[in-house]
């Protein structure tokens, strides 16, 4: 993807998983959500105008340190070329190598009647999702606020059996793309194709809401999910990783 296309997809993903507070400085977005998820509490380049110098680094990290949080850098191809090496030289660890993948919403994406999609998160959805994530008890209120603040159209997908929730996922449409987030399946229900059914149904739901493409973010070592996504036509368009103190 070109830098412009990467920037557009990055901004879609940031809108789809909104932080409670965001600031733009020096070509970077600082995101804050009380420490709930690295994605929502990280420093992200938004274009090739992003600057990286020792002074810029200190200024961008300052509000995290003031809040007692570690400054987390999420480095995509939009980050300045010297940022990764500079952070490594300061002892920052590189973790969670991740792939951003995209697929055309073709005939492989069809709705499955076992998957329910709600326009807002039911209380049972929130509790089940938090239980499988897992979300620390002190972050559950933040999680709920973030999920309820996602701009429509958003789909909260779930699969139940005998009234028991077994699997969850989140879909967010933005323009001609639908983002797929946090596919979670209970350990007792794995190897039953539920992740596939959720992914296909959210893709079909996104197409009904005007999307032509689906995208997702997956850790590069997730050997269980990658074959499924490849079978549905997802291809890696760029990658990113985090640097943490």
Q: What does this 3D model show about the protein?
A:
The protein has 245 residues and is α+β, with helices and mostly antiparallel strands. 31% of the residues lie in helices and 32% in strands. The chain is built from seven helices and eleven strands. Strands 1-2-3-4-11-5-10-9-8-7-6 form an eleven-stranded mixed beta sheet, sandwiched between helices. The mean pLDDT is 93.
**Integer average pLDDT:** 93
- The strand order across the widest sheet is 1-2-3-4-11-5-10-9-8-7-6
Oligomer: single chain
Report, as a whole number of angstroms, the end-to-end distance.
30 Å
Apparent shape: globular
Radius of gyration: 18 Å
In DSSP terms (H or I, runs of 4 or more residues), the helix count works out at 7
Main beta sheet: 11 strands, mixed
Unreliable parts: none
Structural class: alpha+beta
Query: How many beta-strand runs?
Result: 11
- Helix share of residues? 25-40%
Features:
single chain; 245 residues; alpha+beta; 11-stranded mixed sheet; 11 strands
Chart the SSEs and their pairings.
Blueprint: H1 3-16, E1 21-25, E2 28-32, E3 42-45, H2 54-66, E4 72-75, H3 83-89, E5 93-104, E6 115-118, H4 123-132, H5 140-148, E7 154-161, E8 164-174, E9 177-185, H6 194-208, E10 213-219, H7 225-231, E11 235-244
Parallel strand pairs: 3-4, 9-10
Antiparallel strand pairs: 1-2, 2-3, 4-11, 5-10, 5-11, 6-7, 7-8, 8-9
Question: In summary, what is this structure?
Answer:
This protein has 245 residues and is an alpha+beta fold. 31% of the residues lie in helices and 32% in strands.
């Amino acid at each position: 993807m070109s830098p412009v296309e990467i920037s557009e997809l990055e901004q879609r993903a940031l809108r789809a998983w909104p932080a409670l507070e965001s600031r733009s400085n020096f070509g970077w977005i600082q995101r804050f959500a009380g420490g709930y998820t690295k994605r929502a509490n990280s420093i992200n380049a938004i274009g090739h105008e992003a600057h990286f110098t020792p002074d810029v680094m200190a200024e961008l990290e300052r509000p995290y340190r003031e809040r007692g949080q570690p400054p987390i850098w999420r480095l995509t191809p939009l980050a300045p070329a010297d940022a990764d090496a500079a952070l490594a030289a300061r002892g920052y660890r590189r973790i969670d190598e991740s792939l951003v993948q995209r697929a055309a919403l073709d005939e492989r994406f069809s709705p499955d009647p076992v998957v329910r999609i709600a326009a807002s998160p039911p209380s049972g959805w929130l509790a089940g999702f938090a239980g499988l994530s897992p979300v620390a008890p002190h972050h559950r209120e933040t999680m709920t606020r973030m999920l309820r603040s996602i701009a429509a159209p958003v789909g909260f997908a779930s699969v139940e059996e005998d009234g028991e929730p077994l699997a969850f996922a989140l879909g967010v449409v933005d323009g001609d793309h639908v983002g797929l987030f946090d596919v979670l399946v209970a350990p007792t229900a794995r190897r039953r194709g539920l992740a596939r059914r959720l992914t296909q149904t959210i893709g079909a739901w996104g197409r009904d809401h005007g999307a032509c493409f689906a995208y997702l973010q997956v850790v590069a070592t997730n050997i269980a999910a990658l074959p499924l996504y490849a079978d549905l036509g997802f291809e890696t368009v760029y990658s990113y990783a985090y640097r943490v103190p």
